[in-house]
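Here is an idea for our session: we take a single protein and study its fold together. To get us started, please write out a protein record for me. Once you have written the record down, we can walk along the chain together.
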Amino acid sequence: MDTTTMNGQQIEVNEEGYMKDPAQWTKEWANQIAAEHEITLTDKHFEVLNWLREKQAEGVSLNIRKVGKSGIVDIKQFYALFPGGPLKVSSKIAGIPKPVSCV
């Protein structure tokens, strides 16, 4: 099990860097991980991230199509907000496990 430190707090992550405990998520975490992916988060990003976190907490199996039907963004906008594997990247930034649908 790997850990990373942010603001003096130890955060457990898996071997791919996904947060093990979504309850440890903060906006600072999101901004730090987004910066690693060369993304500057906007209010629209946070709308998507919060939606992902809500659905994951509800036990919903996430995939790109569901995000596109969320009413927040369409699939094209999702790709524009989170380039380089939008669901994989956004899930990491959202502090949730990598969805099963991501390779």
Summary: Residues 61 and 99 are 7 Å apart (CA to CA). Residues 26-94 form one domain. The chain has a mean pLDDT of 90.
